[in-house]
């Protein structure tokens, strides 16, 4: 199955970000073919049809790189989050190459770029990412290393093994890296064995680990098949699990950060920077 592609022209490329560690957001696409069951992004897209049919429609911002070329001459330099409500390296990027163009524009203008993805397609752009390592960090969402579970909750995303291999290559190129372990879903990826495996990936690549619980969103309440997710998440002993995660990370020498703390820092007016938490890969 391929998504329906809708082409649009936009007036703006960069938008202000409510995230604690980025100044601007840039999303080359609206919607995401990966169709992750838990994806919160559908609640933030402006096109309701895309939200209702998540994973089936991808809107391509065909002129966003041209708009960005103008904006970088007028906007204050800062940190740009690539793919905050989409995966900028979902399959359509292999055809349109819009993400690549935008990253080139940003780096050439001296902006810092932080990319979060589930796709090994990002390796195609390793040349430009590695050309400005001081201005780049790359994060991979890795919820589990169990492919069977990943297929249930992230049905069209690249396998966890492909993500790990891509993370290893990017880290070995001297680029700052991080892993996002989230959302943690009770009954799917909340066991300590599964979590330990992801922490081990972070340790082996010298990556910072961000982690987060499943956050109940409106669309989940409207889906009967997610009722158990909602009920379990609301009654789950999260603080106990978070303490266990912190202990596991401490044992492996991994810097770990609860994503809720990043959100709170944004509300309080301070900023946590992923670049500040980076440590060199361990031998």
UniProtKB/TrEMBL annotation:
Highest taxon above the source species: Archaea
Keyword entries, A-Z: Iron, Iron-sulfur, Metal-binding
The keyword Metal-binding belongs to this UniProt entry's keyword annotation: yes
Gene3D superfamilies: 3.80.30.30
Alphabetical list of InterPro entries matching this protein: MJ0683-like, rSAM, rSAM_sf
GO molecular function: catalytic activity; iron-sulfur cluster binding; metal ion binding
Pfam families: Radical_SAM
Domain Radical SAM core intervals: 27-191
Keyword Iron-sulfur set for record: yes
PANTHER family (UniProt xref): RADICAL SAM CORE DOMAIN-CONTAINING PROTEIN (PTHR43432:SF6), SLR0285 PROTEIN (PTHR43432)
Descriptive protein name: Radical SAM protein
Phylogenetic classification of the source organism: Archaea, Thermoproteota, Thermoprotei, Desulfurococcales, Desulfurococcaceae
């Amino acid at each position: 199955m391929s998504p329906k592609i809708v082409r649009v022209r936009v007036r703006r490329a960069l938008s202000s970000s409510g995230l604690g560690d980025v100044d601007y957001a840039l999303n080359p696409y609206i919607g995401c073919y990966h169709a992750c069951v838990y994806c919160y992004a559908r609640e933030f897209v402006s096109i309701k049809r895309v939200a209702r049919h998540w994973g089936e429609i991808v809107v391509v911002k065909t002129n966003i790189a041209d708009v960005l070329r103008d904006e970088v001459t007028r906007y204050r330099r800062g940190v740009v989050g690539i793919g905050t409500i989409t995966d900028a390296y979902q399959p359509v990027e292999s055809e349109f190459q819009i993400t690549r163009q935008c990253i080139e524009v940003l780096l050439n203008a001296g902006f810092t770029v932080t990319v979060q993805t589930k796709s090994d397609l990002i390796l195609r752009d390793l040349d430009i990412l590695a050309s400005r390592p001081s201005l780049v960090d790359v994060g991979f969402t890795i919820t589990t290393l169990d492919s069977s579970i990943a297929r249930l909750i992230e049905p069209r995303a690249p396998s966890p093994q492909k993500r790990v291999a891509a993370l290893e290559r990017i880290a070995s190129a001297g680029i700052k890296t991080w892993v996002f372990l989230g959302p943690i879903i009770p009954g799917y990826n909340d066991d300590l064995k599964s979590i330990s495996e992801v922490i081990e990936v972070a340790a082996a690549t010298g990556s910072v680990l961000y982690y987060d619980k499943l956050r109940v969103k409106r669309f989940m309440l409207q889906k009967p098949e997610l009722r158990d997710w909602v009920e379990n998440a609301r009654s789950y002993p999260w603080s106990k699990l978070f303490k266990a995660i912190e202990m596991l990370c401490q044992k492996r020498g991994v810097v770990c950060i609860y994503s809720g703390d990043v959100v709170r820092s944004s509300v309080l007016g301070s900023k946590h920077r992923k670049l500040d938490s980076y440590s060199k890969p361990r031998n």
